[in-house]
Amino acid sequence: MSDTHAQTVAFVRETQIPPAPPPASETGVVKWLRENLFSNAANSALTIAALAVIYMVLQNTLPWILNGVWTTSSLAECREILQGKTGACFSVLTERWNQLLYGFKYPSDAYWRPNLALVLLLFAAAPVLFFDLPRKLLIFTAIYPFLAFWLIWGGTLMVPVVALLGFAAAAAVFQTFSKSSFAIAFFGAIAAAFAVWILGGLLIPEGASENAWLAPVPSRDLGGFMLNLMLGVTCVSLSLPLGIALALGRQSDMPLIKWMCVIFIEFVRGVPLITLLFVASVMLAYFFPPESTVDLFLRVVIMITMFSAAYIAEVIRGGLAALPKGQYEAADSLGLDYAQAMRLIILPQALKISIPGIVNVAVGLFKDTTLVSVISMFDLVGMIRGPILASTEWNGVYWELLGFAALLFFVVCYGISQYSQWLERRLATDHR
Amino acid sequence: MSELMSDREIDRSKMQVSDEVAIEISNMNKWYGSFHVLRDINLTVNQGERIVIAGPSGSGKSTLIRCLNALEEHQQGRIVVDGTELSNDLKNIDKIRSEVGMVFQHFNLFPHLTILENCTLAPIWVRKTPKKEAEERAMHFLEKVKIPEQADKYPGQLSGGQQQRVAIARSLCMMPRIMLFDEPTSALDPEMIKEVLDTMIELAEEGMTMLCVTHEMGFARQVANRVIFMDAGQIVEQNEPEEFFNNPKSDRTKLFLSQILGH
């Protein structure tokens, strides 16, 4: 019963061939190895060399990590336990855990406050980051900054409430007048906000914070990775709108606005962040009246925000320039005014193009928050370089501490990068 | 420069030219820097007229119709559109733009919005039409240009001819009194040109006032009630299509026609 009848041209199949598994060289691990690691002699050599390097790295680091000591209270005790063997002294992390996360002055009975603020941050950020969620959740996002301020700094609830009322008044005034004239609405809103803040400031009694439900914590006492996160989140969320405004201002037809934006961007970009931070910590005090002590945290936030806003503005300008002129013309020809055209047509497309650049700036900004250690704020790096390494117990534990700091930053930055890639896929509508 | 003719009989019952003036241009001049692009243009268009503007490239025909909704600024003379004078007053410009629809050579659909959103955006934000009503009207016009089934797709998923028909529907959703077409078929493949021209013919049959910059002389013969020939920024000749094609007066027109029609 052979399949082919050699003598005849006509052919009728009489038996079905049962499906057979492919040869072992064409499936699974073997195929993958052949295609990806050993496709030719040069690649095989590279694979073997890479394996050798990986082996050597692991050979030296794995014992160090696995022999790690987690429970001692000083480096000397670590060395006693290790008896000359290689091994890490991770006990510095467990022993100084709270200092690494919150700094050394934040009251330990109040650690739940920043923790709660961090959890709530996830809820507040969710509707902004994932815009398929119901839009009503944005109400919580709007309240969150004031809530977080109250939780972290403590003191009387009046302060954040008055601040919130000021913004609410500004929004209300802007809504009322925006139909008649943008200028009146804009300046009216600013005036209304300041009126509420000044009036509210008079209403808050002197020393209201002394025996408030949440004990007040001065900015000087903030520290650790908490400080990095606070600076990072605040500055990114402030510098994005400011960057958009600067980018649009730089494209403006009005020469005054255009040149103000150009000078701001070029000046700030041309100056190292560290000098701006020194200005914030030392010089800025001279510009404010002597009795008004503008908070150091606020001064640093202003400087970092300005710095990254200038970069974000240039990234967005690139996105704006990439849009074809026809998009502006189509928006104009349909009768959309400037604000509508920007908000509905131009910015959604320009921002989409700019996502990789903006994320680049955001990641850079977040890592740059460690520079505040230079102006003696005790962020994660500041804590490591200052109080922890200077202490007699832990003097000399570099790898463990800095490795831990690197790991924390890597986790957050990698998360940001993954989010941006998801966002790009989610927004892809061009189907090219 | 094909002379594509629609194969169907054109219904002329509603193609009425009224006495009401839709557009009036008087002594209009425009310069790009020191280059004089439009020279002393005088043109009156009545409600219901279908005008085809022809001419060699660089003759200023696109610039002329782009001046009518202030995409380009003119430096001298008067343009009155639908009773409103075009001046530097932004309110007037926005009013005119919402009354005048425009279709571009490269469609200029908004790629980040679906077809339906492209059509409802301006009615909702400029005319303050309720969303539901705007969507119903958008579907009505999408049916008219024969692509209602594409409403939830994005422009990038459509062919060129389909995109241009969406662009026409998008303009119609604003209920314009005048439609401007800036070389609507120049970026299209031959078989797509026909579907767009058919849509434009239907629009003409309903009595829409149309100004159309195009090289489609078949369309001009069939639909236009006036053909304007421009060269070097000036109106050289204008006439009814029959006269214009069979009996051109100026040498420049004769040369142009022999170049695009004679083979």
From TrEMBL, chain A:
Topology relative to the lipid bilayer, per the entry, is:
Multi-pass membrane protein
Matching SUPFAM superfamilies: MetI-like (SSF161098)
Per the UniProt record, one Pfam family is BPD_transp_1
Say yes or no: keyword Zinc-finger present.
no
Keyword set, alphabetical order: Cell membrane, Membrane, Transmembrane, Transmembrane helix, Transport
Where does the chain cross the membrane? 37-58, 110-130, 184-205, 225-249, 261-288, 300-323, 344-366, 397-416
ABC transmembrane type-1 domain span = 225-420
One GO-annotated biological process of the protein: amino acid transport
Q: Which family does it belong to?
A: Belongs to the binding-protein-dependent transport system permease family. HisMQ subfamily.
Question: What protein name applies here?
Answer: Inner membrane amino-acid ABC transporter permease protein YhdY
Organism of origin is: Leisingera aquaemixtae
From TrEMBL, chain B:
Sequence ranges assigned to domain ABC transporter in this UniProt record: 23-257
Q: Name one Pfam family in it.
A: ABC_tran
Cross-referenced SMART domains, in alphabetical order? AAA
Query: Could you confirm whether the keyword Transmembrane helix appears in this record?
Result: no
Which InterPro entries does the protein's record reference? AAA+_ATPase, ABC_ATPase_HisP-typ, ABC_transporter-like_ATP-bd, ABC_transporter-like_CS, MetN_ABC_transporter-like, P-loop_NTPase
Q: Which UniProt keywords apply?
A: ATP-binding, Nucleotide-binding, Transport
Identify the SUPFAM superfamilies for this entry: P-loop containing nucleoside triphosphate hydrolases (SSF52540)
Instruction: Cite the GO molecular-function annotations of the record.
Output: ABC-type amino acid transporter activity; ATP binding; ATP hydrolysis activity
What family is it from? Answer: Belongs to the ABC transporter superfamily.
Protein name per UniProt? Glutamine transport ATP-binding protein GlnQ
Species of the source: Leisingera aquaemixtae
Gene name, per UniProt, is glnQ_2
